[in-house]
Amino acid sequence: MDNTILKVNNLQTHFTSDSGVVKAVDGVSFKVAKGETLGIVGESGSGKSVTSLSIMGLLKDTSGKIAGGEIFYEGKDLTKANENQMRKIRGNDIAMIFQEPMTSLNPVYKIGRQLEEAIILHLKFSKKQARKRAIEMLTAVGISRPEKIVHEYPHQLSGGMRQRVMISMAMACGPKVLIADEPTTALDVTIQAQILDLMRNLTKLSNTAILLITHDLGVVAEMCDRVVVMYAGRAVEESDVHSIFKNPKHPYTQGLLESIPKIGVRVERLQSIPGNVPIPSNMPEGCKFAPRCKFAMDICWEEEPEFKEVSFQHFSKCWLNEEVSQNAKKFVGSTQC
Amino acid sequence: MQKNLLEVHNVKKYFPLKKNIFNRNQEFVKAVDGISFFVKEGETLSIVGESGCGKSTTGRVLMKLLEPTEGRIIFEGQDITDLNDDQIRPFRKEFQMIFQDPYASLNPRLTIKEIIEEPLIVHNFSKEKRAERIEGLLEVVGLNKYHSDRYPHEFSGGQRQRIGIARALAVHPKLIIADEPVSALDVSIQSQILNLLKDLQEQYKLTYVFIAHDLSVVEHISDRVGVMYLGRFVELASRDKLFENPLHPYTKALLSAVPIPDPSLKRERIILKGDIPSPANPPLGCTFHTRCPFAQQVCKERVPEFREIEEGRFVACHFAEELDGSLDD
Fold this sequence. Notes:
Number of helices of chain A: 13
CATH topology of the largest domain in chain B: Rossmann fold
Distance between the termini of chain A: 41 Å
Oligomer: heterodimer
Keywords (chain A): ATP-binding, Cell membrane, Membrane, Nucleotide-binding, Transport
CATH superfamily of the largest domain in chain A: P-loop containing nucleotide triphosphate hydrolases
Domain ABC transporter (chain A): 6-257
Pfam families (chain A): ABC_tran, oligo_HPY
Membrane topology (chain A): Peripheral membrane protein
Low-confidence stretches of chain A: 333-337
Largest sheet of chain B: 8 strands, mixed
Structural class of chain A: alpha/beta
Shape of chain B: globular
Radius of gyration of chain A: 21 Å
Subcellular location (chain A): Cell membrane
């Protein structure tokens, strides 16, 4: 597998707080191939955003620290890179777009200046060339009057326009990996459709890999090639997008899929996962999902299962998958009836 | 035939923009610009739309938290539009509201017991009755008695929403206006709350006005659905008709924009161009014509009437009949 561009290996990111160490990410591994879209799904507090900040090396202003594991970008371990090296990689090789574009655009600078800053810094363009490139990028993201927009401030734009500007900024230096953290969550559905469409077309054109972080399984189904499901700081399942939706192995993934209402599918009652996501200061022993799992067995409460390949390129972190697969199937079948 | 619990006749809510002393023509944001509908006893009517379409303002006007600029609101046959604060109070018992943000809608300095007790005190329940009622309510919404002395910050988002629901139910309301009650919640919690709302409706014969932007949630919970765009209804129909055969181009686009959690499904998608126009300066004619893929000259000139094209099915589009089933060919 030499087309892997980004590889995260047993990443652990811990935060120190007054009440002790919070293990926000505690053992996450995945690979992203060139041009591929990998989705990371999870609910709030599952550690998906912290994973992306760890990759970008953006933890230094927080109490967070990478406590273990490696992040390989084109063979280089980013956890060992210093700030100078990271600065070269950020924006140039790995770019990021955030959920709320207003908080990540500088309100006191004009759009043009913000776009050109990165271009001048990374691509060593002259001011004039940078302006030309900025206008090209804005055109590419479907902004209709880019020559005017470069002279405007972020607050003069609508939410959808701002997100387009963010994308053009992220794509300006031709990154190989784009990390998109809930890029459409703050947008209306019709605008979301526009932005997703745009991301798909732009990245296909430049063969950029996307790490798409979201809680919306609909967005995952539409955008991703492969999916990692996270729960309580851990990756609990990983596979290609079709297997995740057709044949989920982990009870959490199953529960998640059953609990969303689907357009065109009418049910009287929705299935739901009982209870709440555990708080980091009070993590259960053993499998972190055991308290909410309808299949929980004795061993689940005592020992944490490993993240293992259960079928080709399909990984799951569950004791059920450890059982002889036939038995497990019977068990799952009988409890569901 | 169920009777109408709530009727809304041509309600408008305009918010004035900053006054300019030299300019006599006061400008307004037309948040709600002439809507009419009714809600039957025991049903769930959903109001969907994107941000800025006026759905939340509608909810607030129905609750009489905002005075309508124009129009009438009839509750159980009585016109409540012009009642003042004192006169409206006995009616408030009949309709209650559930809010979107369970973090902002509970007073952080009150215990759960005090939060739920407040409406009971306002509506003169005796002390013994109050204690009994609070205990019962906590159980109904899936919380425990020992939760009653805790403060909101000790609860998760889903639990807080349960507390908000308990507070709304406290005074035995007939109508509940729920403004985005699940959109701040995680998916696994969202389904718990949706199920709870359905159970409560059955148990207490509640009527819901459900305000939301998530169409899959709306399809799950509603009997009838109204779609709003820039302060007006563009379509209102039974859930089945609206989802299976939407007539208004905006409804069609909205439905096709929802990402479906099934990767093997590939659909034709209508991608709307541009953004929602500002409600302070809406387009002339049909307000949707700037983004409508089927727009014609007449759409720029004439406001389409919100008309009943078959029983119980209202559409505001000049070409509703022609567009019927046009996507199926």
